[in-house]
Design brief:
Strand 5, helix 8 and strand 6 form a beta-alpha-beta unit. 40% of the residues lie in helices and 14% in strands. The protein is α/β, with parallel strands linked by helices. It has 14 helices and 14 strands.
Length: 377
Amino acid sequence: MTRLPDFRLETYFSRWEFTARHHLTASDVQTMTLGELLALGDDEDRAAFEQLSLGYTETFGDPALREVIAGTYERADAADVLCFAGAEEALYLAMNVLLGPGDHAVVVTPNYQAAETVPLALCDVTGVALDADRDWALDLDRVKAALRPSTRVVSVNFPNNPTGKVIGSADFAALAGLCDERGIHLFSDEVYRGLERDPARTLPQAADLSERALSLNVTSKSLGLPGLRIGWITCRDRALLGRLERAKHYTTICNAAPSEVLARIALKSRATILDRNRALIARNLPAFDAFFARFPDDFAWRAPDGGCVAYPRYLGPEGVEEFCTRLVEEAGVLLLPASIYRSDLTPTPTDRFRIGIGRRDPEEGLSAVARWLRTRR
């Protein structure tokens, strides 16, 4: 395996995430306190947490947690679930198990950087770009044209990070069917599932559509609980899941026991938490709509279909990179410029920036941007 490049997003966040006054590019929904989460549990849940033995846990994950996770799928059992320390570990190990020299992968762009760079370190990769000029549409004919006899994985992410795009259910089912016809594993990053603005647009989970597909999810994004560091892959190919479990022996071995109990509480209360988070986004969106309407010469804005991030255009003459740099240095407002999402596989827009819409009270940060724009003029 070749050396992986620096993780651009995390390098940028290492500099600014906890020092900028206004974090306007968060990829998760507003979190909750430990006390608030425990209050969602029943007496048995709270007793399990308070009396928890802090020893090693099962590599596959706590059986009770896996049972709850399986309950969020239509066709999966607990034996089809493998837990990880967040989604990144799951993605990294899945690509290393599925891909090797001589293999080929197809990756949809733009995306979370690891979805591209990890496969590229292992094999030949072809990118298929969402079409920014057609509301980030995915062209299935282009995906089909990119496939080879050696293609082992097609990797997608919907709702998409950073664009917030959700494709149609028929297209997603067709993509799963295409992968099945060719004996390809569909790797589906579903970490923002549940935050669609229109619930009718919620996609089926890949693991429910195909026995070969892998559905990736995590407590971090839609549930707003990144501090738990609990992710999972659901896949009905149990031989493959067993290979993934053995790969995990070389990384975290097992998850943190307290986090597994807390994740179980969160997932049992999933409907309540998602209702809260969708309501928060719905309350926030008018503030973003109003802000961008005030500055039509500076921005082109469209609310996302799902998730809690959006990818508007910056129209200013200095370009989005200088805009984001000066904004955080001079006004303390953190956004992610397009260079964070550049791809080595496909051309990607250079005039975009990621903004987060899921944190509480975004008005203060938006006001700081407005003041800075007025002062600059």
